[in-house]
Amino acid sequence: MNYSDSAAVVLLVDDEPEVRELFMQVLEADGIRSVQAPTAEHAWALLESGLMPSAVLLDLQMPGMGGLGFLLQLRADPRYSALPVTIVTGDSYIARTTRAAVDALGASVSFKPLGFEEILALAHRMIGSPA
């Protein structure tokens, strides 16, 4: 896959295939390219292979490194320290310490389920294009 083109690309990191597929279909119907990763580790491998996304939609609760670990790793790397990230979680509650960490790391939080318009508005806000 060629990751060098300049079109906006949203990296979808979620361990639920149905969620990734829904987000991909909504984004791509609006002309926004997306790349899927089922784990944080897979997402990191995509970045290391040359993917430079415009934004990341990131699940919080995943096996392995998880969303918060991935966000920490992103922010520690100068290449990705300013990359727009939104945590999209199915949790109905996020612990105060987790929320503080997410805020300190410059990410926003949205709660599932998201409707089509909400997904598009979120993506457009992150990539800086008009909805």
Task: Outline the structure in words.
- This protein has 5 helices and 5 strands; from the N terminus they run βαβαβαβαβα.
- By secondary structure, it is α/β, with parallel strands linked by helices.
- The chain has one domain: Rossmann fold.
- It has a 5-stranded parallel sheet, with helices on both faces.
- Strand 1, helix 1 and strand 2 (33-37) form a beta-alpha-beta unit.
- The chain is globular.
- The model is unreliable at 1-6 (pLDDT under 50).
Explain the layout of strands and helices.
Layout: E1 9-13, H1 17-29, E2 33-37, H2 40-48, E3 55-58, H3 66-76, E4 85-89, H4 96-104, E5 108-111, H5 116-127
Parallel strand pairs: 1-2, 1-3, 3-4, 4-5
Total helices: the number is 5
Regions with little confidence, pLDDT below 50 for 5+ residues: 1-6
Helical proportion, percent range: 40-55%
- Major sheet details: 5 strands, parallel
The residue-averaged pLDDT reads: 91
Structural category is: alpha/beta
The CATH architecture assignment turns out to be 3-Layer(aba) Sandwich
CATH superfamily: Response regulator
